[in-house]
Amino acid sequence: xxxxxxxANTIAILQxxxxxxxxxxxxNFLIDTHVLEKIISNAGVTKEDFVLEVxxxxxxMTQYLAENAREVVAVEIDKNLIPILEDTLSEYNNVTVINExxxxxxxxxxxxxxxxxxxxKVVANLPYYITTPIIMGLFESHVPxxxxxxxxxxxxxxxxxxxxxxxDYGALSLAVQYYAKPEIVANVPPNCFMPRPNVGSAVIKLTxxxxxxxxxxxxxxxxxxxxxxxxxxxxxxxxxxCNSSELRFSKEQVVDALRKMGLSETVRGEALSLEEFAAFxxxxxxxxxxxxxxx
Length: 295
Prior knowledge:
Layout: H1 7-16, E1 29-30, H2 33-43, E2 50-54, H3 60-68, E3 71-76, H4 82-88, E4 95-99, H5 107-115, E5 120-125, H6 131-140, E6 145-153, H7 154-161, H8 171-179, E7 180-188, E8 193-194, E9 201-208, H9 219-231, H10 237-242, H11 251-260, H12 274-284
Parallel strand pairs: 2-3, 2-5, 3-4, 5-6
Antiparallel strand pairs: 1-8, 6-9, 7-9
Helix pairs in contact: 6-8, 9-12, 11-12
């Protein structure tokens, strides 16, 4: 089977099937073997591993995963790619392709059936428009995950790993850092893809925390507070929380929680760390966790 990481082979298979790129699926196929090898090595894929791949496209990275993993399940939304995948992956007996929207797949069930409920590794080349829902869906459903190694738009990768006070800091940064340790492992220029995207990409590895790094009384409430705060990031925290249709807190409650933390009542959410959001949640819900600051 021809390696699809080589541009000529990618062109040949696309022509064979007269494939048209779908803009709505944000399709950009990798055509650089060095980048593919980097993804596999940073994901730490071994013959012990069950790997879930999101968006295999024509099977470029799937071939590399199949060579290195025990088993691969690849979830592809575009039905036009299914016959191509049957062709490009025909030599591998350890790959299953599912034609489905990843947001509708029961990944917990997959992990239980294919990996005895043990943590799985996720690898993906994700289109920009769906990066956040996929990552948050994986974390919030508490699927057993060891790591997620993904190719995303460079600015999204940057956003995942920055801290308070930076312009890219937001709800995504906090959510990712609550669940995992993010690390950019490679920057990937547009010429590594077909067709060429207009922006640079990056490979980021999210290694799941064994235990979440902060003690919070109500995880859902904390993320509702974070969302409200960054939906109106130029407003003070008390205004953005009180304006939120998702939350039911008075200005007095917000100000009281901020004062208990030694913060100004005019503070904006972008100034707060994950620890401080956890503490604020504990105070405002009336369920202080006394040792939050030690973690």
